[in-house]
């Protein structure tokens, strides 16, 4: 059975899709709808709707305030992601990018899991900041290799 966090995430994704890539929501309304505290909604937004996963979250506070969730389109495919990866990359950021590629249908499940394993902190058993630096280099190399092979097949 899905957790409340997963259910809220799916609901917000559906709202974004219905809104053509944009959804304006009220945190208090969603909290009431899902019978949870507003901080649960905040947690879902901050942990599941990050730029790495293809979303921007904007908020307007005060009476009548709202939270706007915007889906960022990959206009230039994987090149957009590669441009955004700097000299270091945390595990959460890497997993977010991989999940986005998987969700967009650009990465198959087997490759998704293999790349996750290669980029995990357990595999990259180094101290920070060396681990995040190495992860960024490996991530870029994996994407270049994977997508050059995919393009060759087409």
Description:
It is a single chain. It is built from 7 helices and 3 strands, in the order H-E-H-H-E-E-H-H-H-H. The chain is mostly helical and 154 residues long. The mean pLDDT is 87. It folds into 2 domains: 4-71, Transcriptional regulator CtsR, winged HTH domain (Phenylalanyl-tRNA Synthetase, Chain B, domain 1, 2-Layer Sandwich), CATH 3.30.56.130; 78-153, Orthogonal Bundle (Non-ribosomal Peptide Synthetase Peptidyl Carrier Protein, Chain A), CATH 1.10.1200. Helix content is 57%, strand content 10%. Strands 1-3-2 form a 3-stranded antiparallel beta sheet. Helix 5 (91-103) packs antiparallel against helix 6 (109-119). A hairpin with a 5-residue loop joins strand 2 and strand 3 (66-71). It starts with a helix and ends with a helix.
Give the CATH topology of the largest domain.
Answer: Non-ribosomal Peptide Synthetase Peptidyl Carrier Protein, Chain A
Instruction: Spell out the helices and strands N to C.
Output: HEHHEEHHHH
Shape: elongated
Strand content: 5-15%
Any idea what the radius of gyration is?
17 Å
The helicity comes to 55-70%
The class by helix and strand makeup works out as mainly alpha
| Poorly predicted ranges | none
How many angstroms separate the termini? 38 Å
Largest beta-sheet characterization: 3 strands, antiparallel
Strand order of the largest sheet: 1-3-2
Query: Roughly what is the average pLDDT, rounded to an integer?
Result: 87
Relevant CATH superfamily of the largest domain: Transcriptional repressor of class III stress genes, C-terminal domain
Put simply, the count of helices is 7
């Amino acid at each position: 059975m899905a957790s409340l966090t997963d259910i809220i995430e799916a609901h917000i994704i559906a709202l974004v899709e219905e809104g053509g890539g944009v959804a304006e929501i009220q945190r208090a309304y969603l909290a009431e709808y899902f019978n949870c505290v507003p901080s649960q909604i905040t947690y879902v937004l901050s942990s599941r709707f990050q730029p790495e996963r293809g979303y921007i979250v904007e908020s307007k506070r005060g009476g009548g305030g709202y939270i706007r969730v915007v889906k960022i389109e990959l206009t230039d495919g994987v090149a957009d992601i590669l441009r955004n990866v700097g000299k270091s990359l945390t595990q959460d950021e890497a997993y977010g990018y991989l999940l986005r590629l998987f969700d967009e249908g650009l990465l198959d499940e087997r490759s998704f899991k293999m790349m996750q394993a290669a980029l995990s902190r357990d595999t990259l058993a180094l101290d920070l900041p060396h681990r995040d630096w190495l992860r960024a280099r490996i991530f870029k190399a994996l994407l270049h290799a994977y997508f050059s092979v995919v393009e060759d097949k087409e």
